[in-house]
Task: structure prediction
Amino acid sequence: MKEPSKKYNDEDNMLVNDLRSIVSKARSKAFAAVNYSLVERNWRIGKRIVEQEQNGASRAEYGKHVIEIASAALTEEFGKGFSYTNIANYKRFYLTFNNLQILQTVSEEFKKQKHQTLSDESSLLPQKDQTQSIQSELRLLPWSHYERLIRVEDKKAREWYAKEAFNEI
Result:
């Protein structure tokens, strides 16, 4: 981090440090919200594809067709990020982690938090009066972790790796 070239008095230093803290915490919240949205989007896409396949034909070709249609339509409208492989990974993500408690929207989660200021030390942590499901939502792993975890076939090993990843975040 770049240090200011001018010497500040103690009061100025306190102000600058407080401002840095506010900006840092706001950035962290923004990154967390983006990650949550990405994980939620991928999980919901996977869930919808699984639902479509279960209500559609039972042939394996039908499942492939659903993923192809989803990939083509989403890529056409939104661009990169919706390749056949990615959509198949979203489906696998849902099948592997179908017990995740995905909230309706990120904004709903933030509405549930008490009125906290950005400088509040605890504003990035679950509060005592929040439900357990809300607490687990705040601890979702980044999407890149889930991409790796869905490739671990052994459930116990996958759970161990997920727990270790949570502890390192």
Notes: The two ends are 22 Å apart (CA to CA).
